[in-house]
Amino acid sequence: MRLPLLRSTSAVTTCEVFRVASLFFYIILLAHLTMTGSLSLALSSASRLALGLLLPLSLLSLFRFLRPGAIASRQWLNLFEMGVVMLAVSLLVLDRSLPLIGLPWLIAVAGVFMLPLESGTALAAACTIVLLSMILGSKLNMSLSEWLPHVYATLFVGLLARLLDRTLKQNAQALEQAKLDQRRFDAIARATRHVIMIVDARFQIMYVNPAIQEITGYTEDEMRNLTIKDVNHPDDVTGRREKLRYLRDNPGSSIFSRHRTRHKNGNWVWVEARGYNLLQDPAIKGLVFSVEDISERMAYEVKLEHQAMHDPLTGLPNRRHVLKRLGIAIDAHQENGARLAVLVCNLDFFKSLNDIHGHDFGDRCLLELTRRIVAELPSSDFIARFGGNEFVVLTDADLAEAKIKAETLLAAVSQQFVVDDVIVKIQASVGIAFVNSTHKTPSALLRDADAAMYQAKERGRNRVEIFDAALQHLHTRRAQLDVALRFSMERNELSLHYQPKVSLEDGSIKGFELLLRWHHPEHGEIAPQEFIPIAEASGVIVPIGLWVLEMACLQVRSWSALQDTVAPTIAVNVSMRQLLQSSFLQDVAAILERTGAAPSSIELELTETSAMANPLQTVETLLLLKQMGFRLALDDFGTGYSSLAYLQKLPLDVLKIDKAFINGLCSNSGDAEIVRLILALAHTLKLETVAEGVETEEQATQLLRMGCHLAQGYAFSRSLSADEAEQLLRTEAVATFEAC
Ligand SMILES: Nc1nc2c(ncn2[C@@H]2O[C@H](COP(=O)(O)OP(=O)(O)OP(=O)(O)O)[C@@H](O)[C@H]2O)c(=O)[nH]1
């Protein structure tokens, strides 16, 4: 068995040096005595005493060497041992068995036995040795110059022994601290869920903590055979390589990255890594990484991102997603001219479906339409639900292809289907716009596609329109008028004209239709057909409509005071937008109260199309208006899609026959037939009829013959100012008409 002189697993301590040094001391001393023949049989009693002291101490030292730790190191014991040795050496010196100089045994005693002593004790011991050597020197008649160097050497060796003791103690402390630090680091490295990794300049893993196994399934040893590049996801390689190079080539730099790393089972794990270049640090000499598993967070983020970008009902991408995709597409167009067509598909009259069958029913219809649209269009097209009843398709189609896709959309939507035993037939209007260099933002491109879609609505719905230069012009003018219209009332640009409504039998004035006119300082006279839809779309029609009604009420009130005239009715157009206002009935009641007008003199006209767009709500509001005393008229009759059953439910007084049929009354048998049918219908429903846009005497005669009682149009009068209308009432005559 090989016996180590010093334990190498920990710092060498003073005690250990002493353990070895003292044994050597005794061995050499005894060997010297043996070799010099000092241990002859004729030993003096002093020498025998010295040997009697030294031998047990030698055995004690041997025991101490062989069984380190068996004898606790105690100060008094060490001091005692030193004293005994000094005594033994002194006896031997005096007995001349040992030399005082030449072989300076006391110097050795100072060097060995002062090692384990405390500072103060060691000083005292040193002084004692010096004193002893002086005594011995004088006893042996040695001169000062002979033994003085011996004293210096004793002191010098004693001092060295002290320094050695201190150094060893400091080393032991430093080593203890290092071990403590190491244990702490190991504990932290084991406990943390973060991977801590040190790699060399070639990215070879030098150190990694056990957390690596939890994240990647690889053990620490398995990882040490890899480089960090070996476990990178192929899609992350390029970006990561650049970052790693930057880190390696820039001392003191740090990087941050989110990437995927390979799990031993073949899956990919999302991690977030921070890297620090400590290649220059002599203790590290590597790149240090702290890596955190963020798979759960990423999964959560992906889920959140998906929720934020998708419509919860249909699962299609939502408005936000469309805007993002459009942003990317616009950038691609600016960079390399990439094509993009935007198809906005808005369902027609979807509100009616909701109103009649309920919102849940509407939702199921939306789901069915989604299923069909997705099935009909190629998967490369981006299909989104942009809003309530609006879908958007983004595709890189050219004009012809986009048209085909739009027709496919219309066909997919319009195929009838059954939900809850109800046969549903929905139609849609589609607007198409193509990205061009003027589109700087997604909303600019969507605005154009929207404009085309609204054009499709205006042109009768269930059709496709493409945004082109003409539409662009129209759109720009529409936008300008939209803004201008908001200021039209306060700038007094609106005026009212009175279109007489006369009896076809005797030509007497039965009332007037109030016509709204708008004169804009720059754009001039703007036709109602142009600005009314704009006002309806923006909602400005609501205050304007109330203003018109108030004017009509004031006028009616003023005419009711006229002597010798029958108070005429004034017909006022009411927009659907007004009817849908929850405050409409209150506003109307307030006007009646303010003006004191009799509601029976006011005829509220609404168009057939708008009345049919929201049947349930319309019927309810109209019934309440009827209860308030208003007369109700259905304007432009014949142009819409009234269901007769529904028509019967409306509390109407008047049907106004659309001008389109009157135009062809005397020349087109089809139109004449329609007019005849409308008159028959009105007769059955006990409704008054008014023919609109009568321009010739022939038409008036024909209408009277067919049973129509009232008419309006240029055949009788142009539209008049309030004063002219009043004058007309007073004279009770119509210049251009002679009773038929
Ligand atoms: N069922 C259902 N209806 C919705 C949803 N989101 C919006 N809507 C309805 O869609 C309808 C849209 O109505 P409008 O914008 O007036 O248009 P419309 O009735 O389709 O008429 P036009 O567009 O003029 O042809 C409204 O009644 C909304 O309440 C939804 O998630 N589910």
TrEMBL record:
Record keyword Metal-binding present = no
Checking SMART domains in the record gives: EAL, GGDEF, PAS
Q: Can you give the residue ranges of the GGDEF domain? A: 338-469
One example of the protein's molecular function in GO is: catalytic activity
Q: What keywords are assigned to this protein?
A: Membrane, Transmembrane, Transmembrane helix
Q: Which domain of life is it from?
A: Bacteria
Annotated membrane-spanning segments are 20-43, 49-66, 78-94, 106-135
Q: Identify the stretch annotated as signal peptide in this record.
A: none
Q: Name one Pfam family in it.
A: PAS_3
Report the InterPro entries cross-referenced here.
Biofilm_reg_signaling, EAL_dom, EAL_sf, GGDEF_dom, Nucleotide_cyclase, PAS, PAS-like_dom_sf, PAS_fold_3
Sequence ranges assigned to domain EAL in this UniProt record: 478-733
The question of whether Ion transport is a record keyword is answered with no
Q: Where is the PAS domain?
A: 181-251
Q: What is this protein called?
A: PAS domain S-box-containing protein/diguanylate cyclase (GGDEF)-like protein
Organism annotation: Paucimonas lemoignei (Pseudomonas lemoignei)
